[in-house]
Amino acid sequence: MKKSNKQDKRQAENLLPWLIPIVLIIVWQVAVDAKWIDATYVPSPLAVLEQGVTLWQAGTLQQNMGISLYRATMGLLIGGAVGFVLGVANGLSHISHALFNSTIQMVRNIPHLALIPLIIIWFGIGEPAKVTLVAIGVMFPIYINTLHGIQSIDPKLIEMGQSYRLTKWQMFTKVIFPGAMPTILMGLRYALGVMWTTLIVSETISASSGIGYMETNAQQFLDMPTIFLAIIIYAILGKVSDWIAALLESILLDWQASKGGR
Q1: What are the counts of helices (DSSP H) followed by strands (DSSP E) for the chain?
Q2: What is the pLDDT of residues 50-62, one digit of tens each?
Q3: Distance CA 133, CA 57 (A)
Q4: What is the model's pTM?
Q5: Where are the domains of the chain?
Q6: Which of 36, 80, 217, 260 could form a disulfide with 31 if both were Cys (CB 3.0 to 4.6 A apart)?
Q7: CATH value of 45-250 in 1.10.3720.10, 1.10.1740.10, 3.90.226.10, 3.40.50.720
Q8: Which positions ≥6 away from 252 have C-beta within 8 Å?
Q9: Are 211 and 28 in contact (CB under 8 A)?
Q10: Model confidence over 184-208: pLDDT tens digits?
């Protein structure tokens, strides 16, 4: 009986996050059907769904989604790699920290979206411009959290590693990196949000493909179902990204949960 109650409770907890979105969609549909809301400006969820099916059957939707995912992924990989390397270098080396950190912090305070005119001039309006902008956006959250995670390592753990005469590589892989992992993953989760925000802006300003372009193009024709569809897709992609980040945390930080359970 207790096991059954625990399973029921777990199922209820899994369904709880979807409660508010489902209720909002139902209220939205009812409001449009009852003409409390003008469907010309706020189409019903069913109308948005029908438009999504139509664009999917035409091949337009998956093509634009694929292009947006490519831009976001490449920007995340490039910017994340640069931010991680800089964070590790400045966290481990006092000389590197003194040389680079102050400059990085100054550049970080410049809103990266303000760089759009320069990036368009330098790279044009093709793929390199959009990937570069996303990379710049995600680099700083990864850098800050990697640096903070390494600097926050318990000195007693460092002393213990030294007492065991670990090499520098062993010290990094067995003590420093695992200890900094929670903070690094926190930076990754924040970077994922910045990634989608940056991509949305870049695709609505200068693009001929992607979800943002699809939304901007629909705006010119007052195609409200497509506009709402693009917004919902961004929301879903953001949720999926957050779910992936949470999954990585559960996998990579499993040792902490095991340690805490002992």
Answers
A1: 14, 0
A2: 989 999 998 888 8
A3: 31
A4: 0.82
A5: 45-250
A6: 36
A7: 1.10.3720.10
A8: 181, 185
A9: no
A10: 988 998 898 889 888 888 887 767 7
